[in-house]
Amino acid sequence: MNTKSIVFILLYSAALFNFNIPLAALAESNGDSELNISGKVVAPSCTIAPDTVNGSVDLGEVLSERLQSAGSFSAWSQFSLNLTECPATTTEVVVYFSGGQDPDYPVYFKNTGSSKHVAIEVADDTGSRISNGSVRNMAVDSQQQAKMVLKGRMISPQGKAISGSVSSLMELAFGYK
Predict the structure, then answer these.
(1) Where is the Fimbrial-type adhesion domain (predicted)?
(2) Rounded to the nearest 5 degrees, what angle is found at the Cα of 137, between the Cα atoms of 169 and 75?
């Protein structure tokens, strides 16, 4: 009798007599182990244009004497957020704004530069103020692009601005619908 016949007879006998031989019993056990399997399903996103990814907004220069009265401000400087290559299924982009708030006037962004009594005001193209925690929606057009026009300026809520640099960091997070 050859080896193949013996294996067949053993398997046939096990099936005929309903031997339950657990597969684990046939393998040598070295203890318990776990295997975690994970993944993530993500929504397709738009490409953030290079001028938006690491963009800078130049608010220009203003004489400190123009910011001596409470509520005085500089001229607006316009800038935009640009997204391209949005997936065909994306119709709207939600923008979440965050950044340091002015400690005395939280509707403005904090100036981290050397100038004193100056904050940064940001607004959308309708003039509606954007501050830390603001959320805005951008429609995606037929070319699969989205654009939001914004403007920023220096403002001295309490007046008596002291000359120096003006800077702030505004962070953007995007959600897609």
Answers:
(1) 36-147
(2) 50
Q: How far apart are CA 47 and CA 20, in angstroms?
A: 58
Provide CB contacts within 8 A for 94, sequence distance 6+.
135, 136, 137, 138, 174, 175, 176, 177
**By mean pLDDT, which of 16-30, 82-96, 157-171 is the weakest?**
16-30
Spatial distance between the Cα atoms of 41 and 47, rounded to a whole number of angstroms = 18
Q: CB–CB of 153/60 below 8 Å?
A: no
Domains (ranges, CATH) in the chain?
47-176 (2.60.40.1090)
**pLDDT tens for each residue of 95-104:** 999 999 999 9
More confident residue, 7 or 42: 42
Give the closest residue to 83 by CA, choosing from 40, 136, 30: 136
